[in-house]
Amino acid sequence: MARSLAIAAYLASLGSPDRPKNPTDQPPRPTGTIIWARCSHPDQLTAIETLDRKLAEDGDPVHIVATLLDWNPNYGDRALPEPLGRENIRDFIAHWQPVMCVWVKGDLDPILLAQIRSADIPTILVDATSEGLDDVAGTWVPGAMRSLLSQFEAVLALDQNAADRLIHAGTPAEVVLITGAMEDCAPTLPCNEADRGDVAAAIGTRPVWLAAAAPLDECELLATAHLLASRRTHRLLLVIVPKYPVMSSQIAQAMRDRGFNVSVRSQEPAPCEITQVYIVDTEEELGLWYRIAPITYLGGTLDGGGCRDPFEVAALGSAVLYGPRVEPFQRHAARLNAAAASRLIRSAADLGPTVEGLLAADKTAELAHAAWDVTSRGATVTNRIVAFIQLRLEELV
């Protein structure tokens, strides 16, 4: 793929051909097909991780190597620093040998794009906006922006306005698609269907709510909330999945001390009719309980300390409640809040009334459906990108 004269002139205008050496050694290259995902912001990494997971679902040895422009060691297990300067970029490409590049959003770096073009690596632009176009287009080199944008085999724009501006700036109209944002989607947690059927049969028509990944210090607020929510629904069952299984015996005793009839999953495979609080002390069963409980409170979100991904809950049809401390899933919570697809609990005193208010099946179903819609929209865009990449890989590999 020959570099255009406009790009060559533009690169010459940038000054020094090489920036300082990248100090980070490259890890060993895995076997299989490598796709390079160039990210400009850490927020983009989770969407790329979703893309990587979906590409690997068919069992083919496809790996995405992400680089991050705004890198620091905190992201060391998720992305590599973006190579800086022509020599480092060439070394990076020679080491990883990517067959494709996924360029996320804008920040069109002419030096980086020129090296990708010289290496004849097919490149697509996703989450494309008009952001940063003026900075490049404002240079003295005629046609620089048009040359940069014509490099992309496909440009997946966020909306019509972005598509119009990109085409006006020089992107060939035939490669522009309006797809919306490539969203990060939590993996669907597995479930043993036979176990689910047995538990569902044992619970029957009893209303259920779940506290997922609950820390030990939330026993008091869970007990208070359950007492309040049970005032009108005397058969209400609270299922607690502790943050760590080792906490189970302490949580069970704390709930017994508050007067509840408590049973533990390792001793009783399913709650009985008189069980008021059921403690799940076995590993990796959240996928089952999200499917069982129509209402889920994310433990740890009132006082902080980390929580589960609210998208995990939403994807499996449970209405999700959480407090203000949703780190590190603020973006997911914000998207659910914006769509009225979750309930934000401002204080511990609000948990019981919120659960009580959602016990009506129609209210729970409305919330859960709105949440599922949020997660499925993001998955649709990601699936379209996966399909495009898979078709292109069949031609390249």
Largest beta sheet: strand ordering: 3-2-1-4-5-6-7
Please tally the helical runs, counting DSSP H or I stretches of 4 or more residues.
Answer: 15
Mean pLDDT across the residues is: 87
CATH architecture label name of the largest domain: 3-Layer(aba) Sandwich
Q: By helix and strand content, what is the structural category?
A: alpha/beta
Helix content: 25-40%
SS elements, strand count: 14
Shape designation: elongated
> What's the story with the biggest beta sheet?
7 strands, parallel
Give the domain tally.
2
Provide the low-confidence segments as ranges. Answer: 14-21
**Class of the largest domain in CATH?**
Alpha Beta
Distance between the termini: 18 Å
Describe this entry's structure for a reader.
With 397 residues, this protein is of the alpha/beta class. It has two domains: 5-22 and 29-182, 3-Deoxy-D-manno-octulosonic-acid transferase, N-terminal domain (Rossmann fold); 193-376, Rossmann fold (3-Layer(aba) Sandwich). 40% of the residues lie in helices and 16% in strands. The chain contains 15 helices and 14 strands. The protein has helices at residues 5-12, 45-55, 86-96, 110-118, 133-137, 144-149, 160-169, 193-203, 219-229, 248-257, 286-292, 310-315, 330-338, 351-358, 361-396; strands at residues 33-39, 62-68, 80-81, 100-104, 123-128, 154-157, 176-178, 208-214, 237-242, 262-264, 277-279, 295-298, 319-322, 343-344. The strands form two sheets. It has a seven-stranded parallel sheet, with helices on both faces. A seven-stranded parallel sheet has the order 10-11-9-8-12-13-14, sandwiched between helices. Strand 8, helix 9 (219-229) and strand 9 (237-242) form a beta-alpha-beta unit. It is elongated and about 75 Å long. Residues 14-21 have low confidence and may be disordered.
